[in-house]
Amino acid sequence: MQTCGAIHHWQRAAHGLEVVFEQGVMRLEAVAADIFRLRFQPQGEFAARRDWDVVQPQAGAEVQVFQTDAVLGLRSDALRVEIDPDSGALSFDGADGQPFAQDMGGPHWRCVSINEMPGLATVPDRELPPGPARIGLFLDKHMHPREGYFGVGQRSGRLDRRHQRLSNWTVDCACPGHAQAHDNMYQAHPCVMALRPGRAWGLFLHSTWYSDFDVGASQADSLRLFTLGGELDYYLLAGPTPAAVVEQLTRLTGRPALPPLWSLGYHQSRWSYADADNVQQIAAGFRRRNIPLDVIHLDIDYMHGYRVFTWDRDRFPHPEQTVARLRQQGIRTVVIVDPGVKNDTRTDYAVAEQGRAQGHFVTRPDGGLFTGYVWPGESLFPDFCRAATRRWWGDWHADLLAQGVAGIWCDMNEPAIVDRPFDTPGAREQPMALATRQGEAQAPALHAEVHNLYGHLMARATAAGLQRWRPQRRPWVLTRSAYTGIQSHAVTWMGDNRSCWEDLAMSLPQVSSMGLCGAPHTGVDIGGFFDDSWGELYARWMEIGSFYPFMRGHTATGTRPQEPWRFGAEVEAVARGAIELRYRLLPYLYTLAHLASRHGAPILRPLCYDFPDHPRFYTLEDQVMFGPQLMVAPVTAAGQDHRWVELPAGVWYDFWNGARVDPGPLMHPAPMGRIPLFVRGGSVLTLGNLRQSTTEPLSQLTLQVYPGIDAHWTLIEDAGEGWAYSQGHIAETPLAVSQTQGGTVVTLGQRRGAFQPAPRDMVLKLHLPVAPKGLMCDGRQVNDWRWEPAQRCLRWQWCDDGQARRLETV
Ligand code: GLC
């Protein structure tokens, strides 16, 4: 192991310092007052910025350099870092002077071998390619005994990452289900959030190479960062709250795109709906049973022999008509597109022909075209590291859009490749060689450097294509593989889970962790992908599924059908109820999506996000928050009609009956169809009328008010599609609830912005322990309110005219 030794000399650099050690150079830069970047290069020459860098260029912050006998350092308004001159070890602290993210020593490095990285076990190279790929950088940070470690993207396993070694390398793990702890999965998010009472901080390891985080697994008090690629490069996010960490991460890597409203509705999928008639039957099945639905997904069998950008004309003779007919019923169509392009030389398949002629496909290290097997048989793979290839790929979506397709589902883009036709026994994974050259001729990269970006760049190319070909609408792309920053381009899901209780339970830490990594729009296959689902599991999964930011039912080929009515009347009623709740919550969810697009704020999030000063909640992963107002405690095991719930100190209400619930642990009823759901005191929960699709109008808005602490909320609305919102066509309605001596006051502030919601009724539902004597509106007595004893709420309805209102109980 080599170390940098002591400081030789240093100089000021833009927004920071450049420090030359006995061996290697360190650059410290305040990219913002609350985000410092650290780079260390043993050879002295920093890698050039890459075209695909997920970090947006930052303006940089004012800093002061300070030096004493013992330390050299840098200080901004929010963050301070000290460098130990003898070792290069850093220690950070914030305004409170409490150190965090302290190095146990300086950066160190050595030549590494491929066998040290279990995540690379299947790559065909027996050695790492020569050059920087062979230099592994290590850094140990001291783990504070009270700190929890969260994030690190898509995993199976526990929410708190302590005691685990987590590698960042995208793979299709291809083994059914998520219940066993897999290390790496389809996505790579080398970012971690550390949290102890009073301080959250984050770290984004800015490396697309294979990297891993050893979170106290090998050495109990050390968070060890490791990356290939010959350079250590990370961003330190100062926090000090979890919300601040996610805001900082998404300021760097991109805010979550605002999805179109329809995409927040329910999606139904299966591998595959056989043909146009079958798709129509599914749509009719929803409509006949009054189960809301916004989207149907078409899996691989809609294509002609799995050739991307084609239709199987026997199954779908008139795609435009099929799509249009669904659209008339308020249902959008999403189609799957895989990156593997059939290496078709016999038929006239323009995608393969053009791609070959224009040099868009990845070539082997020896120069020949790289091929591997996926659904269509032998396939070629676009090199998404090339700008021209991304554009070419994006343009291929034009026909699908012209046919009326609403969104694109990118799959198998880790990329998943095997060594022989899928149906031959013994097919094995056959990834691209690490030594494969990718990217532009003038700035080539090794596959070893860009592997983790394959799916990410495919999704980015797709979203850019949708933007070019249908500029008036928001692109909607779903992707299985991704890298940090995906949130600006696409929604993700957790891949191939299994119909089992463990995978249902696992979905909570999975979706929560994604939110902490800045990618809130995610979900899992409801009901489970592999194996047959069954009524109880499906019903419970639907209950929690209503709270996944992306809500889709999906299952594998050959499994029992998984539409809501397939498990009998009782389960159908539960599934309908769950989807209906989702639709009623849409005004709240859409506001959450806006907040995510502004500050990165996760939608479904672990308790530690909203209650960071209560270590008790750091490891509680079977309860989650859905935005700041709702706590969900789903049933994740068989045969339960009660479950333990733990509510943090404060005022809480049972969503279903409006009753106040005491904080602390309690055994709570959880009958089928009544997912334990709690509202935080001080909330103004906004619910819409029940709709079968988001194409139906929002004709009623209910303000469900839960007094407790004084609180504010702003309902955010817009057209639900398109870009006018970014030019001010938005409606923001400030809502506040407060207690006075006389009673509860609910204030609807003046609506802001140029968007005019369609006329609608407003309903106030004010939850109170007992009926009040009266209700005043802007100082005048209201007479037509009523008390609803079952819900413990006062109900008053009026016509929304966008005016400010003060409502007060007496
Ligand atoms: C992959 C996807 C799955 C899809 C299947 C067929 O396994 O993860 O969702 O149904 O491929 O396209």
From TrEMBL:
Residue ranges the record marks as coiled coil: none
Glycoside hydrolase family 31 N-terminal domain residues: 26-214
Alphabetical list of Pfam families matching this protein: DUF5110 (PF17137), Gal_mutarotas_2 (PF13802), Glyco_hydro_31_2nd (PF01055), Glyco_hydro_31_3rd (PF21365)
Record-annotated DUF5110 domain positions: 700-768
Example of a GO MF term: hydrolase activity, hydrolyzing O-glycosyl compounds
Keyword Hydrolase: yes
Record InterPro entries: DUF5110, Gal_mutarotase_sf_dom, GH, Glyco_hydro_31_AS, Glyco_hydro_31_C, Glyco_hydro_31_N_dom, Glyco_hydro_31_TIM, Glyco_hydro_b
Gene3D superfamilies on file: Glycosidases, glycosyl hydrolase (family 31), Golgi alpha-mannosidase II
Domain Glycoside hydrolase family 31 TIM barrel: 256-592
GO biological process: carbohydrate metabolic process
UniProt keywords, alphabetically: Glycosidase, Hydrolase
Residues covered by the Glycosyl hydrolase family 31 C-terminal domain: 600-685
CDD domains in the cross-refs: GH31_glucosidase_II_MalA (cd06604), GH31_N (cd14752)
Family note: Belongs to the glycosyl hydrolase 31 family.
Protein name as annotated: Alpha-glucosidase
Protein species of origin: Candidatus Tenderia electrophaga
UniProt lineage: Bacteria, Pseudomonadati, Pseudomonadota, Gammaproteobacteria, Candidatus Tenderiales
